[in-house]
Amino acid sequence: MLPLHWQGDFPGVLDGIHGGALAVGLGRSYGDVCLLEDGLLLQTTAMNRLLAFDPETGLLTAEAGITLAQILDFAVPRGYFLPVTPGTKYVTLGGAIANDIHGKNHHIAGTFGNHVTEFELVRSNGARLHCSPTDNPNYYAATIGGLGLTGVISWAQVRLKPIVSRLIDYQGIQFHGIDEFLDLTRQSAGIEYTVSWVDVTSTGKNFIRGIFMQGDHSKVPAPLKPSAKPKLVLPFELPGFALNRLSVSSFNALYFHKQIKKRQTKLQDYEPFFYPLDAVLHWNRMYGKSGLLQFQYAIPWEHAREGTVAILSEVAKSGLASFLAVLKAFGDVPSPGLMSFPKPGITLALDFPIKPEKSFKLFDRLAEMTREFGGRLYPAKDARMTGEQFKLFYPQWEQLQRYKDPALTSSFWERVISQEGDR
Amino acid sequence: MSTQKNKSADWSQEPKMPLHGTSDLADAGTVAKNTPPKRILVLGATSGIAEACCKLWAARGESLYLVARNPDRLAAVAAEMRVLGASYVDFTTADLDNTASHPELLARAINSLAGLDVAYLALGVLGDQHKAERSFDEAAHILHTNFIAPASLLTWLANYCAQRHAGTLAVLSSVAGDRGRKSNYVYGSSKAGLSAFLAGLRNRIDREGVRVITIKPGPVKTAMTQAMKGNAKFADVNKVAATIVKAIDKGQDELYVPGIWRIIMGVIKIIPERVFKKLNL
């Protein structure tokens, strides 16, 4: 791992290095898109300078290693917020672009890439490409969701959105079954943020019960103070048996009933609304040493209902515990990114403690079902999909390969493309 | 060449927002203030510790004049300081090894700032000890950048400040200057010379109303120390910067940062030479 400190460090750092390289930010992708075996990882987090900010338009320019947390610390007191945010603020600007991340407002705002106005892409031959929808548009499109393979992003400009308060006008609504979920989705089309937590351990009459969470930025002006730093740290890994079918289904039942009323309304700070897990540093240690596996699909509307029901019954049947199960409807705002994951339909994200035989088998089964229902998986959260599946999910991979920098690669790319090709 | 662009915003029209930096900046305990901005000249502004200090000063709304060698890096640091809220930012590239250029450079900087409250000297190189043991060119380069060049700058600045009976000269030396060790005695001796120079200078001009501050950082996690063994455990640069900024505000004579290094070096200094010469330090 070699840190990049300055925009000019790449590609000079590659001198005398043989084998591939990959720029990584905080490495929070769940799979191997941010890893590279037998290669050089270039860590961007020291290249994190704010370069320009226009308080009139909210356009912010920064080096690619800046984290979303650092952007929020700067922007919130000035009355601005991220246009799109994932479930953690501990990701970098470059990583957000490279994975074309999405958030709870996908149905209105699209992906992160929809708000990236321009950036500079540095290639290993030293070329510095200014990329925007009109300037080097092919590189612009290939880099958004391009998994870091098209070059190193040195800086980027993103359009922030104005806010007048840290607070979110929140409503939590209990639902039972997929149709209640779909009804709530339709009713909330005009609400900016929507997401649902689902209890995936229950079957029978409690099958697909969950809490539909929706919110808008409060319109009532309130002090825009900077956030406090997280205080809770999970100091060590829990033993592997701590999360089992019983403990997780108890958690799920408690979580469902924590909200006693069918509907609960409150004003909530944006931190717990967007980043509930960021409050506990190293929360992943909960899953023990063997860690966790994430799985996320998007299935288009045509098969979204039946696909989601079928996959959730498969998960419930498997008995493999998951208590972070998130269901959301994607909207139809097209991303400028060539390889962007979201498409109109339903997305489901699950995580499981790794139990090699059982969880890998289930994953492979779920991936296959996703394919059958015309859906696709999210590379940023994948560690298992085959090359065949990847090429089917993303037929545009051949275009990405055309814009890929020859010096850059990742364990993910080696797994789904290069090794497949060798066979 | 950097393709970074100067965006159209006019920073000078922004209202002052003293506490609204990043949370790292909030940690520095900076407070809203009504005093006029301090005019701070930063020599070696792209060094990791200097940049971290500048961020704190910028968030407080101070005025900055930045000097460094690499134009792209300097432009990035200057842009950042504008965004963070510095009242005024100007910069020039210069090779500070060239001592003949110092008087003109310093006069230009002070002219640009319309005066001087703090001069912060952060120029320095770690150098290559192994190479310096074999090649006097390398040793001379380390001694020149870390000792001769600061001595030249300080001679001019001390006279400027003493004449006006005002100003603070804050200089990055190092704990490595407290005792020569085989692993880095060329760097260490350059810093030892600098520390001695500063002690004498303080003795001369403190009575004229000029503060001289010797800053002795232990190992800090920055670009300079990135290749050093065990650097993952080095001190956090933002915390170090916050301590330095506070010491400069107070006009403290000498600062070990992190503070534990005062004790560590105290112990290292009292080890008798007949024992010390056999140690691997």
Description of the molecule:
The complex is a heterodimer of chains A (423) and B (281). Chain A has 423 residues and is an alpha+beta fold. Chain A is built from 12 helices and 20 strands. Chain A folds into 2 domains: 2-163 and 392-422, 2-Layer Sandwich (Uridine Diphospho-n-acetylenolpyruvylglucosamine Reductase, domain 3); 167-385, Alpha-Beta Plaits (2-Layer Sandwich). In chain A, 27% of the residues lie in helices and 25% in strands. In chain A, the strands form 5 sheets. Chain A has an 8-stranded antiparallel sheet with strand order 15-11-13-12-18-19-17-20. In chain A, β4 and β5 form a beta hairpin. The longest helix of chain A is centred in the last third of the chain and has 18 residues, at 301-318. Chain B is α/β, with parallel strands linked by helices and 281 residues long. Chain B has a 7-stranded parallel sheet with strand order 3-2-1-4-5-6-7, sandwiched between helices. In chain B, β2, α3 (71-84) and β3 (88-93) form a beta-alpha-beta unit. The longest helix of chain B has 29 residues, at 136-164. The N and C termini of chain B lie far apart (42 Å). In chain B, 44% of the residues are buried. Classes of the chains: A alpha+beta (423), B alpha/beta (281). The interface between A and B is medium-sized, with 30 and 31 residues.
Summed up:
The complex is a heterodimer of chains A (423) and B (281). Chain A has 423 residues and is α+β, with helices and mostly antiparallel strands. Chain A has helices at 68-75, 93-98, 106-109, 137-143, 178-187, 245-258, 270-274, 301-318, 356-372, 387-393, 397-403, 411-422, and strands at 2-3, 21-24, 40-43, 50-54, 59-63, 80-81, 116-122, 128-131, 152-159, 161-162, 167-176, 193-199, 209-217, 232-233, 263-269, 280-281, 292-300, 326-330, 345-353, 376-377.
What's the SSE pattern of chain B?
A: HEHEHEHEHHEHEHEHH
Whole-Å distance between the termini of chain B? 42 Å
Strand content of chain B: 5-15%
Structural class of chain A: alpha+beta
Strand content of chain A: 15-25%
CATH topology of chain B: Rossmann fold
For the biggest β-sheet of chain A, the strand order reads 15-11-13-12-18-19-17-20
The major beta sheet of chain B can be summarized as: 7 strands, parallel
Mean pLDDT of chain B: 89
CATH fold annotation of the largest domain in chain A: Alpha-Beta Plaits
Query: How many strand segments of chain A?
Result: 20
Assigned CATH class of the largest domain in chain A: Alpha Beta
Characterize the biggest β-sheet of chain A.
8 strands, antiparallel
| Parts with pLDDT < 50 across at least 5 consecutive residues of chain A | none
- CATH architecture tag of the largest domain in chain A: 2-Layer Sandwich
Q: Give the terminus-to-terminus CA distance of chain A.
A: 30 Å
CATH class type of chain B: Alpha Beta
Mean pLDDT of chain A: 91
Read across the widest sheet of chain B, the strand sequence of neighbours is: 3-2-1-4-5-6-7
Overall tally of structural domains of chain B: 1
Shape type of chain B:
globular
